[in-house]
Design a protein that fits this description.
The protein contains 8 helices and 5 strands; from the N terminus they run E-H-E-H-E-H-E-H-E-H-H-H-H. By secondary structure, it is α/β, with parallel strands linked by helices. It has a 5-stranded parallel sheet with strand order 2-1-3-4-5, sandwiched between helices. Helix 2 runs parallel beside helix 3. The model has no long low-confidence stretch (mean pLDDT 80).
Length: 206
């Protein structure tokens, strides 16, 4: 069974009460780890860039617009963390931007512990599915590469069979005009495909 590391969470919120609620809930919730709190966008950007959290709870509806500016900065810096927007206004004001930036979800103020827990649990389930698919894709790629390597090794062993290689070299070394692969196949009694494989091998080996 795959070991699941705690989801490292950063909270950006200028309301002390909401920030405390988020901090306590994240700390108490299984599968999560609180790595920081910030009440301004400048220090938040520095810490998010340095800490690389899995998820950020971001209050974007401050009157000075700093939350939305932070979101734009995170996008331009290609920070890989997922984001839940904490809103203090109509959600449709942020829906288009959320779709453009692939925001995971929204929390409308006021919200309680249960609503926050439900959002975080949904995110954890999403991450487990995403990580499982990532592991599966990696295994499939590794199996494909291993199969290709085994196939190449078997072909190399086949190409190096002394009797076949010697017969082709014997024909090429005779006092004859330049031969085509088809003529070599006819003279040797070896299939044209095999002859071509051996000739490629001989060219590679010099």
């Amino acid at each position: 069974m795959m070991s699941v590391a705690p989801l490292r969470t950063f909270v950006v919120e200028d309301d002390y009460g909401i920030a405390s609620l988020c901090g306590v809930t994240v700390t108490m919730l299984e599968g999560y780890e609180l790595i920081g709190l910030s009440d301004d966008s400048v220090s938040a950007l520095e810490r998010i860039s340095a800490e690389q959290p899995d998820i950020v709870l971001l209050e974007v509806s401050q009157p000075d617009g700093s939350g939305m500016q932070l979101l734009h900065h995170m996008d331009r810096m290609n920070l890989s963390c997922d984001v839940v927007l904490v809103l203090n206004g109509p959600i449709w004001n942020y829906m288009m931007k959320g779709l453009q930036l692939d925001i995971f979800g929204y929390l409308m103020k006021p919200f309680d512990t249960r609503r926050l827990q439900d959002t975080l649990q949904s995110y954890r389930q999403y991450r487990m599915r995403r990580d499982s698919l990532s592991v599966l894709k990696t295994k499939l790629t590794e199996n494909k590469l291993q199969s290709r390597s085994t196939s190449n090794t078997m072909m190399l062993k086949k190409e190096m069979e002394p009797a076949i290689l010697g017969r082709i070299q014997e024909i090429l070394g005779g006092d004859q005009a330049m031969l085509t692969s088809r003529q070599i196949a006819e003279q040797s009694g070896i299939s044209l495909t095999t002859v071509r494989s051996y000739l490629k091998y001989m060219v590679r080996k010099g």
